[in-house]
Amino acid sequence: MPKTIRLTRYDKVLKIELNRPEELNALNKEVLKEILEHVVSLDADPDLACIILTGNMKAFAAGADIKEMCDKSSKEMREGRYFSDWELFANMQTPKIAAVNGYALGGGCELAMMCDYILAGESAKFGQPEIKLGVIAGIGGTQRMTKLIGRAKSMDMHLTGRMMGAEEALNCGLIARIFPDEELVENALGIAEIISQYSKPALTMITNAIHKSDNLTLEQGLKYERSLFYSLFDTHDQKEGMKAFIEKRKPTFNGT
Q1: Which end of the chain is more exposed for a tag (fewer CB within 10 A), N or C?
Q2: 180 with 224, same domain?
């Protein structure tokens, strides 16, 4: 039974709650270990269609656990491959939604950006304040934030260490939607339920194609998208979805 995360399954939706409230859900080795063991391993589950990652009303995650790193040398950090295994979570094919209330700072902001998109409560605060500790982001902050909000805005956030609120985050494209704090998780679950009704192969290919667009030219991306589109015509769900449309009924997808 995991201690630093709480898992709740709602049919095809998995809700993950970070559970280190006294540390404002700071990310340590145990959190990563439990995410890898109990979440990443579910990526191949054909009955899992969407993941919600959240914290509590005060903090999604206020950063990485500084106490765990403070006295480490560069050699120890490199040999310990600190943070590198978080990419296993980031690279999951199952759609992931971060539902952020309160603080999402440093590693917490980076974890939210590892999800496919972010929903936020009105009080959410985002930031990469590593500069205040004499370091830089180490779990993808300089890279993912720049791709999401642009070079100038990312430079501002990283060089000053300031926080941005939910409205600013929405306006610059860091997040997708804002909800009242107390309604955030309920709405996130509702959105995940909508997503879970669709074909898992199609869901997987959508997330794959959109992420690939970061590193492809438009011409390359169009070819990649079209290749994925063609491949879906060998699936049960494509046949079922199109037949259901013609027959004016709701499709019954089975994930194959």
Answers
A1: N
A2: no
